[in-house]
Write a structure and sequence with these properties.
Radius of gyration of chain A: 26 Å
Order of helices and strands of chain A: HHHHHHHHHHHH
Strand content of chain B: under 5%
Shape of chain A: globular
Oligomer: heterodimer
Structural class of chain B: mainly alpha
Helix content of chain A: over 70%
Structural class of chain A: mainly alpha
CATH topology of the largest domain in chain A: MetI-like fold
Number of strands of chain B: 2
Number of helices of chain A: 12
Largest sheet of chain A: none
Largest sheet of chain B: 2 strands, antiparallel
């Protein structure tokens, strides 16, 4: 093979046609695989969206029957669904606000200061991220059981703040690491005190990081089922509602709300990406 | 203000205090109560008392070792399949993505924006008895004409794989994306074949991503109960299902807590063994 290739006058490349063909095939194999994998990832999402327009014959929304926009016109039709969604939103709002404040302060301390107990702090932030959710939920339940705390809205909120904090810390910290402190020093040199510097300089600059942390916390909270199911008592969030309906057949309105949550999340995600692009000075990347 | 000026070393601790206090009270202390509850005996009627009830552990383990073993097996297979899908996919995005990288990455995270339960229910729909997948598999002869996919181990493992795949893909992508492409070119300049360059350069450099991804997928997968509940039958019950029903339905708190402690311990043990086998220093990278 090689000798034949080298015998040709002035070979332009030292690659045999066979291996070039093989490379071509392989390159496209990877692309084909990649596209198929993306299709696989999108398939259930597509099913959720498509079946939100279905008019199921029985209770189970499995087979395509007929197109209807009825569920979209009245997404909170089924009893308890609207209440469950409202509860989820309330929990998520409170959990997001608290976890973003607590998490941002921790991230500031970790990035800006050297102090004793740093390793322990990092560990304490890291472990909740990796522990199985069922253990987090179960252990929190044993706390409430042993103290005789009544389960309900506020125990859900506490649980959600707990698992959101670590995610906020990690997200905000990632943005803080590249922060140029000279800007703050300049402000102080120009006579701004620490509070003015923080609110006029620091906060606006780390705002995208905080926003990303808040989005993450909100979507984790809205989505959580496992930890919530352990600490909810009789309060019902949207995922708990879906769970309670799963055995009897989930109404198509659930698909509508699932699609809406998906749509809002994607739009916010794109907005955040665009926001970052605009903030990044040209040539910085 | 003046007090803070005089005691600057206090600032990081003041920033940390609220967040860390919250995590101690609602994450660390509950783990203590989980252990405490696991040694309690009693029923919901007469109450629960702490009396070093170690037989909670022995009974729980002897009764539910099948579910334990199954959890580890399902989680292991799902992790492996997720790796086999994610590696080529993220390699494709990292090396061939060009300016579409961020958009393609969004496809990987997109499933997270659909509520966990809803995307699992979408798989229930996709794999249902009259669904497209089952019909195709029956046509190809992989599944008997009266056979089904839903309510089998395959369905549960498929669901777990899908639901936790982003946990595998994201760290993999990060480590592949960080690889200095000139290293691979250098290997090829030194007459390494593409295969050899991949095996000797790309693969070892992506090891931190493989390790992180494997752990981040395996841990939640081993504690999962949603897929077994929605896509399987009691014959596919995992340890999460046992813990969930014992806590929330049977109120056998002692054994439920004991099972949670054992689950946590087994996972920690596996992490230690795994990181020892593959080398911890790579985790830091």
């Amino acid at each position: 093979m090689t000798t034949a290739a080298e015998a040709q006058p002035l070979p332009r490349r030292r690659v045999s046609p066979l291996s070039r063909a093989w490379a071509f095939v392989r390159r496209h194999t990877l692309t084909v695989f990649g596209v198929l994998a993306l299709v696989y990832l999108m398939l259930p999402i597509l099913v959720v969206v498509v079946f939100s327009f279905n008019d199921p014959a029985g209770r189970f929304n499995y087979t395509w029957e007929a197109f209807t926009t009825e569920h979209w016109r009245n997404p909170f039709g089924p009893p308890f669904l609207g209440d469950a969604v409202m509860t989820s939103i309330k929990v998520a709002v409170v959990a997001t606000i608290v976890s973003v404040i607590l998490g941002t302060l921790v991230a500031l301390a970790l990035v800006r200061y050297h102090f004793r107990g740093r390793g322990t702090t990092n560990l304490l932030i890291f472990v909740p991220l990796t522990a199985p959710e069922i253990v987090l939920g179960a252990s929190l339940l044993t706390l409430f059981l042993n103290f005789g705390t009544a389960l309900g809205f506020w125990t859900i909120v506490l649980a959600h703040i707990m698992f959101c904090i670590s995610f906020v810390v990690v997200t905000v910290r990632a943005r803080l690491v590249g922060f140029d402190r000279h800007v703050e020093e300049a402000a102080m040199d120009l006579g701004a005190n620490e509070y003015v510097t923080f609110f006029r300089i620091t906060l606006p600059l780390i705002a995208p990081g905080i926003l990303a942390g808040a989005l993450l916390a909100f979507s984790l909270s809205i989505d959580d089922f496992v930890i919530t199911s352990f600490n909810s008592g009789t309060t019902e969030t949207f995922p708990l509602y879906v769970w309670s309906q799963a055995q009897r057949g989930v109404p198509p309105e659930v698909n509508v709300i699932g699609t809406l949550i998906f749509g809002v999340a994607i739009v916010l995600m794109l907005a955040n990406v665009l926001f970052q692009y605009r903030r990044t000075p040209k040539g910085a990347e | 203000m003046t007090f803070l000026h005089r005691h600057r070393w206090l600032t990081p601790y003041l920033l940390l205090a609220p967040g860390i206090a919250f995590l101690v009270v609602f994450f660390v202390v509950p783990l203590y109560y989980l252990g405490y509850t696991s040694l309690q005996e009693g029923t919901i009627q007469v109450g629960y008392t702490f009396n070093w009830a170690w037989d909670n552990y022995s009974e729980a383990f002897s009764t539910y070792q099948e579910q334990f073993f199954r959890s580890l097996l399902y989680a292991g297979i799902a992790t492996l399949v997720a790796l086999l899908i994610s590696y080529p996919l993220t390699y494709w995005i990292a090396f061939r993505g060009g300016r579409w990288k961020n958009l393609l990455l969004l496809f990987i995270i997109a499933p997270f924006f659909v509520t966990y339960l809803i995307r699992t229910l979408a798989w229930q729909n996709i794999l249902s008895d009259d669904g497209l997948v089952v019909n195709a598999l029956q046509f190809l002869g992989f599944v008997a004409d009266d056979g089904r996919v839903l309510a089998t181990s395959t369905a549960v493992i498929a669901g777990i794989t899908y639901n936790f795949l982003p946990f595998m893909a994201l760290p993999l992508y990060v480590s592949l994306e960080q690889i200095d492409k000139s290293l691979i070119e250098a290997a090829k300049d030194l007459y390494a074949s593409s295969t050899k360059a991949f095996l000797r350069v790309t693969l070892p450099l992506s090891a931190p991503g493989v390790i992180a991804g494997t752990l981040l997928t395996f841990i939640p997968a081993a504690g999962d109960f949603i897929n077994a509940e929605l896509l399987g039958t009691p014959n596919q019950a995992m340890i999460g299902n046992v813990i969930q029903s014992k806590f929330l339905e049977i109120t056998d708190y002692g054994q439920a807590a004991a099972l949670s402690v054992v689950l946590m311990a087994v996972i920690l043990l596996l992490i230690v063994v795994y990181t020892r086998l593959v080398g911890t220093e790579r985790l830091a990278g």
